[in-house]
Amino acid sequence: MSTIEKHHFQAEIQQLLDIVIHSLYTDREVFVRELVSNAADACEKLRFLQSSGGAVFQPDIKEGISVKTDATAGTVTITDTGLGMTKTDLVENLGTIAHSGTKAFLKQLAESKKPDAHLIGQFGVGFYSAFMVASKVTVLSRSHLPEETGWRWSSENAGGYEIEPAADLPRGTSITLQLKDDAKDFTEEATLKRILQRYSSFVQFPIELNGTHLNTIQALWTRTKSEITDAEYNAFYQYVGHDHEDPLLRLHFNADAPLAIQSILFVPQRNVENMGMGRMEPGVNLYCKKVLIQDRAKNLFPEWLRFLRGVVDSEDLPLNISRETMQDSALMQKLNKVLTTRFLKFLEETAEKDPALYEKFYAEFSRCLKEGVASDYTHREALGRLLRYESSITEKGKFTSLADYVKRMGSEQKEIFYLLAANRETAESSPYYEVFKSRGYEVLFLSDPWDEFVMEHLHEFDKKPLKAAEKAELDIHAPPTAEGSLSEADATALAAWVKEKLADRVGTVRASKRLVDSPAVVVESDRHMTSSMKRMLKAIQKDKDVIPDTQPDLELNPRSSVIVRLNAMRQTDEPLAAKVAEQVYDNARVAAGLLDDPRAMLKRLNELLETVLTAKA
Ligand code: ADP
Ligand code: MG
């Protein structure tokens, strides 16, 4: 009686496999890195189990990895003596999606003309890279659990897979790849040796190739910094980060107090989240005395540093702690704080030493820093020092730090001003900017819609309050006393009249002290809200009730000829003056991006045009 069970791959995995098999022809050697990395993971997990006192099948077999090539048979076999898999493990781990990022990876693969296969390991589906080179993959595995037995898992051309019992297996896993005709090169020992040597020195277990020892085992992070070459660091990054590029930044950090830490941290060249890849998972592995405690450890760093890759080794961690309690332990929080503080300091140093490099980092990862400002009170100040913006005095496309802004502030300026606008040109022509220009105050130009919220959260920098330009209580300097500007009494009377005409559609109406050229401007009456913030909230919240539909205040410029003539006209032709007042209000709302339905305005505008044309005819 046959005991072979036939299974389908989960739909997403099948889809992934179809792409892997039919569209990925370059950089196929990543399969070696992925399978060796899985074998090493399995050994690390076993070592952890043993060191925390768990019962293990065949405890005397040492952890290790062996690679065998067979040119005659056209196969490559990668064997490890790690923790092995039960039947359930095989079904779950090699047939279904375990990681949330997989769907996003699939989407990218499916949409892209040149699918980026190198990223496969970053999305927790490295095993399937075997199908780039193999027509048949056979996995023999026996779990470390003493009561379990062995299993054979196999898949031909990825059309589903079969599982059957396999007798007399030693503990661990052996994966045999029957190579496709165009991948037979991988049976050459020299080829495999070259590939393996790239990563083998980072694997904490002996690796053999056709019976010959390949690696000397010494954890990179425990070696003396000055003796490690750039090439070694880069290859290590590619191994732990499952990447094919070199890292953008690297920090090798050791400490004795307050905690013993040996760590190497990397920042990738690219932020895959910017490529529409969904949310990244954390990527730093946690060790204690070279024993892996947790890979892709959660809570080792704050969420907003999830782009970091690398290792942290701390001998202060208890070895026999369960991974679940580990995550929330006070020790972990302490580790998190020390590491995060150090990394932020490193970023600051980088910004100082190599501004161009820092800008590159910032272009990719600024959103993560901003997320930190908004969500992490502990590091808010340090994060504030890392923010960069264009400002009214920088050149287009050049950035300033808040610290440099503060250095340039004159003694009479008490606040740091910022203005959100789609781009520099819009910011410079904004009515809100006029008063700053007249006083020669620098204004930060924010172009990311997140930025206003970031500023709200940051609240102050170097004890200077951060203030939205719209909310600044500033008077223009030495207002031009052009004859024809309205007297204070006239301006007050006009404001009262405009309020009467616009009634509930406007908050309060007053004479403006901030405008130089524009006739009028709207200002949100809510102290914490700016027009742009309101616009954004409205766009997010479909349910309008959530955002109280308060009317903005209107400020009139007593020095604007439009306003001066409007005041005169309300004596001679009040109905026409009322129409102009409404138009002035709508224009100000357009400038603030707050006019939802411009159609009513168009009708009025046409009437006004008609009046002008009739008067001139
Ligand atoms: P990842 O390594 O990111 O989890 P993979 O697709 O490489 O994703 O592997 C999927 C899972 O299959 C692993 O998490 C592991 O549970 C299991 N696995 C793969 N190879 C082995 C192995 N050699 N020994 C034990 N388990 C393995
Ligand atoms: Mg893997």
Structural notes for this entry:
The protein is α+β, with helices and mostly antiparallel strands. The chain has 4 domains: 5-213, Histidine kinase-like ATPase, C-terminal domain (Heat Shock Protein 90), CATH 3.30.565; 220-356, 2-Layer Sandwich (Ribosomal Protein S5, domain 2); 387-468, Rossmann fold (3-Layer(aba) Sandwich), CATH 3.40.50; 488-616, Up-down Bundle (Four Helix Bundle (Hemerythrin (Met), subunit A)). Helices cover 38% and strands 18% of the residues. The protein is built from 19 helices and 23 strands. The strands form 4 sheets. It has a 9-stranded mixed β-sheet with strand order 1-6-5-4-7-3-2-8-9, covered by helices on one side. It has a 6-stranded mixed β-sheet with strand order 16-15-18-17-20-19. The longest helix is centred in the middle third of the chain and has 24 residues, at 330-353. The radius of gyration is 33 Å and the shape is elongated. The mean pLDDT is 89. Adenosine-5'-diphosphate is lined by residues 34, 38-39, 41-42, 80, 82-83, 85, 93-94, 124-127, 173.
Compact overview of the structure:
38% of the residues lie in helices and 18% in strands. The chain has 617 residues and is of the alpha+beta class.
Instruction: Report the bound ligands by name, code or SMILES.
Output: adenosine-5'-diphosphate, magnesium ion
Give the name of the CATH architecture of the largest domain.
2-Layer Sandwich
Q: How would you sum up the major sheet?
A: 9 strands, mixed
Structural class: alpha+beta
Q: Give the end-to-end Cα distance, rounded to a whole number of Å.
A: 103 Å
CATH class of the largest domain: Alpha Beta
Low-confidence segments: none
Gyration radius (Cα, Å) is 33 Å
Record field, number of beta strands: 23
Describe the strand arrangement of the main beta sheet, using strand numbers: 1-6-5-4-7-3-2-8-9
How many domains comprise the coordinates?
4
| CATH topology grouping of the largest domain | Heat Shock Protein 90
Shape call: elongated
Q: β content, as a range? A: 15-25%
Quote the average pLDDT. 89
CATH superfamily of the largest domain: Histidine kinase-like ATPase, C-terminal domain
Total of DSSP H or I helical runs spanning 4+ residues: 19
